[in-house]
Amino acid sequence: MERKRSTQRVALAALLLSAGSTPALARDPGWDWMIEPYLWGASIGTDMRTFEPPTSADSDSSFYPDVIDKLDGIFMVRVEGRNDRFGMFADFLYLGLGDDKQHRVLSTRTDLDARLLDAAFSMRFGDERYSGLDVFGGLRWIDLDMTVRFEPDNPAFEPRTLDAGRHYADFLVGARYAWQLSERWGMNVRADGSLGQTEGTWSASLMGNYLTGNGAWMFGYRYMEAELGNDNSDVKLSLSGPLLGYAFRF
Q1: Of the candidates 159, 44, 68, 65, which has an alpha carbon nearest to the alpha carbon of residue 109?
Q2: pLDDT (tens digit per residue) in 119-143
């Protein structure tokens, strides 16, 4: 009987030890994480056309001074984790703009609220964690709320408002190649595209990085283009410009 109780105590101790070690196994010490607030100094081009009634409006704004003057709100952040072979990331961008223009026979008021989320899993080819080729796939989600109000100078004509608000979900695929140039300096090039509820989006970037004690400075250039629309409108949106951020690593 005493031997049976001893066996039970040993089994119970082993079970408790196993249960206590499960969270440690789940927290894979091989994963590195970073969170990167950044600023994309993007020049923005929009081209909006409706079918019923047939109208059009377009706008091209450089980041400085145009976008700065029209800016209603901005927030950009990227989170990424990886081990030697696999990774995951999420990249969120919010941009709010307002623009007034006086044309020959009317004035326009354009309001743009754009939210963009990329979320994907990645796989690396090669033995180095921070250099080599990554391929990734996931979701690109775009929430676009764009309104244009036309105010005729002649009071005999009624004002008109066009609304192109809608959200879109696409399947995202892409690749990124990174070089470690020295102990502190590195660079990477990335290209991706998506298709689904949009008529297609694509982007490309060239980025450099400089390692510090707590993370890395990230800087470079990015271009993105999206073909959007709904049942009564087509919208083409393009963003291009320099990007600067700091990636906190932990």
Answers
A1: 159
A2: 999 999 987 888 899 999 999 999 9
| Whole-number Cα distances in Å, 93 to 6, 68, 70, 80 | 60, 16, 17, 15
CATH of segment(s) 30-249: 2.40.128.90
The closest alpha carbon to 150, from 45, 57, 70, belongs to 57
Contact 179, 187 (CB under 8 A): yes
CB 194 within 8 A of CB 166: no
Specify whether the CB–CB gap between 180 and 186 falls below 8 A.
Answer: yes
The residues pairing with 234 across neighbouring beta strands, listed in sequence order, are 49, 229
pLDDT in tens, 27-47: 445 899 999 999 998 888 777
> Tokens for 41?
């100094």
CA 27 to mean position of chain CA atoms: 27
Inter-residue contact 53 to 232 (CB < 8 Å): no
Token readout for 220 is 């470079």
Q: What is the CA radius of gyration of the chain?
A: 25
